[in-house]
Automatic annotation (TrEMBL):
GO molecular function: hydrolase activity; metal ion binding
Keywords: Hydrolase, Metal-binding, Zinc
SUPFAM superfamilies from the UniProt entry: Metallo-hydrolase/oxidoreductase
Protein name (database record): Glyoxylase-like metal-dependent hydrolase (Beta-lactamase superfamily II)
Domain Metallo-beta-lactamase per the UniProt entry, residue ranges: 15-167
Cofactor(s) for this UniProt protein: Zn(2+)
Organism: Haloplanus aerogenes
Residues passing through the membrane, by range: none
Length: 192
């Protein structure tokens, strides 16, 4: 049975969330930065099968080298030319017990992806959308508001309205009204 835990919960450092997903294929979704993610992972699992990166901003990949060397694991991401990415993501990736559809969602960063498992009704949204209908920054290099809005719309087209969990790159995961949270983020991105 798949279990999802945020290893960065409670960390007081500039980092992203880091989701440890256990099951048939144990994975980290993002590695975070500026905290001992290796120690946190080692206290829970003996090994990792893969590391999936939602995008390559430093707060999401700062711990990549430590995770690679400790667990002898490859990273997968959208842009294999980036030093943090060993292998390019395909159309799907197995994380835990489920196959996740990979959706390219630029606007916050060109190599940004969201991951969605229809069977589990779970989405890893990276920095595209957040709890309370917030949306990713577009004032950084490679950011673009119109592109971000199109990406939010594409995510809404992909996920089911009965989405069970929305795991975001920062802040709390959303387990109540996850689909509506994505809708609100799209509305907010259009207003500001």
């Amino acid at each position: 049975m798949t279990d999802i835990e945020n290893l960065a919960a409670g960390v007081q450092a500039f980092t992203s969330n880091v989701f440890l997903v256990t099951g048939e294929r144990t994975a980290l979704v993002d590695t975070g930065a500026n905290f001992d993610v290796v120690g946190a992972a080692e206290s829970r699992v003996d090994d990792l099968d893969t590391v999936v990166l939602t995008h390559t901003h430093r707060d999401h990949v700062g711990n990549v080298d430590a995770v690679r060397s400790t667990f002898d694991v490859e990273t997968v991401g959208y842009d294999p030319s980036h030093p943090a990415v060993d292998t390019e993501l395909g159309e799907t990736v197995q994380v835990g017990d489920h196959d996740f559809t990979v959706l390219h969602t630029p606007g916050h960063k060109d190599d940004h992806v969201c991951l969605y498992a229809p069977a589990a009704k779970v989405c890893f949204a990276g920095d595209l959308v957040f709890a309370d209908g917030a949306f990713g920054r577009t004032d950084l290099e490679e950011g673009d508001r119109e592109t971000l809005i199109r990406s939010i719309d594409a995510l809404l087209d992909l996920v089911d309205p009965d989405l069970v969990a929305l795991h975001t790159g920062h802040g709390p995961s959303v387990t109540d009204g996850a689909y509506e949270t994505i809708e609100r983020a799209g509305q907010a991105a259009r207003r500001f």
